[in-house]
């Protein structure tokens, strides 16, 4: 087990539906009682961000992370000013925030994904000695990140992942037996994995990670914006990212609001420039129609569309879009825009990025690059604006070439919509 040390951040929680402030009693994912549904947000005692030393890894931003302890082995996002891609696009102030494996840039995320920012923050929120099993649903990258962090720190973890996405569960070392994998059979999607995780959380001793509802997940992801702002010296004007659930974009917005309150980095809000991968784009459809509500989607039609997209991680059928504090509010507050990217454009963007910047990137990150290319070409960003491009995963090919890989195999495979008693019986045996 890795060494840990106490580092309890002081904060209060606030309902974004009512404005009510309350204490965090431990693992709150929503406002207690019968308050209207909505996200909750952490209000930190430290109004100005005090950055810790490099030896703290991701926890250099611990002032604005709702953690009870610090886990060793983390790596923060890295921000640098682009030269070659910026020149190709005619942009003078393009900054790339990279989460992944790129030693020359100081990036050492072993999962090669910014999902590590979530995992270290969420697991740091757990009390030392917590004996409950954390349940995480994932389309791939999130599972890989949580598995590594939980294995290293002996935290009980149940992963729920579609069987067709299991090739994403690679590791540079065998995992500890505290990590178990339950898969939903081939042909299922991320939503089916979420359904399985919900059934698992009904079992005594299992707790939901919480997804977008977990303040630790969002504030971990928000460190990308903190990295960029500190590197640039000001809040960016534009923020580019591809979205599946949109949680990362909500996190970026919330980090921006905290930076405004800090007072040292500007008084403006970044314009969220978000993208989805054709033909699966429920967020794009709702936003461009001006709708706060997502449109109904037939399950089979949704699964077929997910099968076609290159960026499988962008496949959330029920993202936190409509609820108070969700993506609709974030986009509205920042006057955001949505883009659609075809698979062909995604591949071309990935190839261009590797050629110009020198590192391979994940398909979801390539979707964001393609949307930036579109925006620059169509004049949707000022050529001299300060732009943050969030590269949410990269360096995987580089990492795999230098390491022996171990793949996590399912401990149990469920059909679609399994009965609750079957899930309970089989999962209790695992732990």
Describe this structure in words.
The structure is a single chain. With 431 residues, the chain is an alpha/beta fold. 34% of the residues lie in helices and 19% in strands. The strands form 6 sheets. A 6-stranded mixed beta sheet has the order 6-7-18-15-16-17, with helices on both faces. A 5-stranded parallel beta sheet has the order 14-10-11-13-20, with helices on both faces. It has a 3-stranded antiparallel beta sheet with strand order 3-2-4, with no helix packed on it. A hairpin with a 5-residue loop joins strand 2 and strand 3. The longest helix has 16 residues, at 247-262. The radius of gyration is 20 Å and the shape is globular. The mean pLDDT is 95.
Q: SSE layout and pairings?
A:
Blueprint lengths: L3 E3 L4 E5 L5 E2 L17 E5 L24 E3 L6 E4 L2 H6 L4 E5 L2 E2 L4 E2 L6 H11 L7 E5 L3 H13 L3 E6 L7 E2 L7 E6 L5 H11 L5 E3 L6 H7 L1 H10 L5 E5 L4 H16 L8 E7 L4 H7 L10 H10 L18 H8 L2 E5 L1 H15 L5 H15 L9 E5 L4 H6 L4 E2 L4 E3 L5 H11 L1
Parallel strand pairs: 7-18, 10-11, 10-14, 11-13, 13-20, 15-16, 15-18, 16-17
Antiparallel strand pairs: 1-5, 2-3, 2-4, 6-7, 8-9, 12-19
Helix pairs in contact: 2-3, 2-5, 5-7, 6-7, 11-12
């Amino acid at each position: 087990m890795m060494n840990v040390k106490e580092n309890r951040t002081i904060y209060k929680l606030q309902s974004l539906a009512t404005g009510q402030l309350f204490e965090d009693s431990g693992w709150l994912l929503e406002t207690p009682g019968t308050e209207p549904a909505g996200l909750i947000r952490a209000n930190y005692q430290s109004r100005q961000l005090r950055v810790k030393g490099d030896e703290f890894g991701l926890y250099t931003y611990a002032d604005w992370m709702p953690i009870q302890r610090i886990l060793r082995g983390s790596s923060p996002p890295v921000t640098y000013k682009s030269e070659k891609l910026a020149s190709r696009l005619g942009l003078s102030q393009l900054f790339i925030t990279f989460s992944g494996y790129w030693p020359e840039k100081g990036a050492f995320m072993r999962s090669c994904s910014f999902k590590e920012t979530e995992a270290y923050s969420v697991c740091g929120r757990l009390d030392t000695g917590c004996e409950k099993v954390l349940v995480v649903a994932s389309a791939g990258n999130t599972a890989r990140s949580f598995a590594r962090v939980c294995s290293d720190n002996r935290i009980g973890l149940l992963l729920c992942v579609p069987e067709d996405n299991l090739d994403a569960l690679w590791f540079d070392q065998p995992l500890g037996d505290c990590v178990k994998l339950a898969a939903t059979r081939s042909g299922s999607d991320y939503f089916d994995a979420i359904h399985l995780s919900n059934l698992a959380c009904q079992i005594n001793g299992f707790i939901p990670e919480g997804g977008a509802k977990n303040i630790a997940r969002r504030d971990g992801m928000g460190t990308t914006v903190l990295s960029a702002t500190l590197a640039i010296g000001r809040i960016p004007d534009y923020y580019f990212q591809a979205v599946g659930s949109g949680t990362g974009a909500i996190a970026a917005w919330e980090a921006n609001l905290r930076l405004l309150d800090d007072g040292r980095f500007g008084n403006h809000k970044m314009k969220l420039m978000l993208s989805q991968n054709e033909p699966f784009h429920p967020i794009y459809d709702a936003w461009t129609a001006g709708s706060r509500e997502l449109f109904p989607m037939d399950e089979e039609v949704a699964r077929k569309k997910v099968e076609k997209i290159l960026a499988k991680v962008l496949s959330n059928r029920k993202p936190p879009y409509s609820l108070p504090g969700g993506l609709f509010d974030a986009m509205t507050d920042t006057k955001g825009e949505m883009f659609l990217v075809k698979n062909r454009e995604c591949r071309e963007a990935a190839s261009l990025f590797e050629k110009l910047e020198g590192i391979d990137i994940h398909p979801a990150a390539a979707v964001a690059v393609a949307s930036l290319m579109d925006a620059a070409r169509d004049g949707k960003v000022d050529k001299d604006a300060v732009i943050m491009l969030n590269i949410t995963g990269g360096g995987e090919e580089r990492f795999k070439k230098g390491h022996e890989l171990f793949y996590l195999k399912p401990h149990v495979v469920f059909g679609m919509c399994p009965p609750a008693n079957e899930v309970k019986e089989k999962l209790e045996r695992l732990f």
